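FORM 12-B: Structure-to-Sequence Request
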């Protein structure tokens, strides 16, 4: 196992897709038009960047699947995700940050715009090798790690009710300790929009989108 040089602040990596209509938030269609789903997703990512910027003592990066200027004014370091499936993308993102000297790296998804900052801080403060933030659909909204192994996401079925459990098992097979943080919800299905609209203290851009679309 690699020994990392611990010298920098933790690194938070927000994973996002280029907001191309018809390629993001597809499970919200046809409930939403493709263009509306894409604009909602753009708002989610912008609001997540604002939340993550409020966490003290970390470095923040945005990793996108393909080049995009959607968030070019955010002032955040932007990189491209590695080639391959999601398992490889996540491994390379964590491994790259740890090899760069960060004592811990955390990948955060872009589907939970109301995610409390305290939940992410709890994952960063974990003493376990890997900490996962469970989502209510059986997946997870973030993974925080001080180690990386190519097999830590092996055979994980993504977007499944088994995603979290299979990840815990895969990480365990790598010999790493695992901790689960506080639970939250993603916005993936049409019914999730109702829960989102009823949430208190909605972030700015998501709130604007909901108001503009009669939610």
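FORM 12-B RESPONSE
SEQUENCE OUT:
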């Amino acid at each position: 196992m690699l020994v990392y040089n611990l010298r920098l602040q933790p690194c938070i990596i927000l994973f996002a897709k280029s907001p191309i209509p018809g390629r993001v938030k597809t499970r919200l269609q046809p409930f939403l038009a493709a263009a509306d789903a894409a604009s909602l997703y753009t708002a989610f990512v912008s609001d997540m960047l604002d939340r993550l910027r409020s966490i003290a003592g970390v470095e923040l990066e945005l990793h996108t699947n393909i080049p995009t200027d959607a968030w070019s004014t955010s002032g955040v370091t932007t990189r491209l995700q590695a080639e391959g499936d999601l398992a490889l993308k996540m491994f390379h993102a964590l491994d790259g940050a740890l090899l760069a000297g960060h004592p811990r790296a955390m990948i955060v998804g872009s589907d939970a715009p109301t995610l409390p900052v305290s939940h992410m801080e709890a994952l960063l403060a974990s003493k376990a090798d890997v900490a996962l933030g469970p989502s209510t659909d059986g997946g997870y909204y973030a993974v925080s790690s001080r180690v990386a192994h190519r097999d830590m996401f092996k055979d994980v079925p993504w977007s499944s009710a088994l995603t979290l459990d299979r990840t815990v098992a895969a990480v365990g097979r790598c010999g790493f300790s695992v901790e689960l943080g506080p639970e939250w919800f993603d916005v993936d299905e049409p019914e999730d929009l109702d829960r989102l609209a009823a949430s208190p203290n909605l972030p700015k851009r998501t709130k604007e989108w909901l108001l503009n679309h009669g939610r």
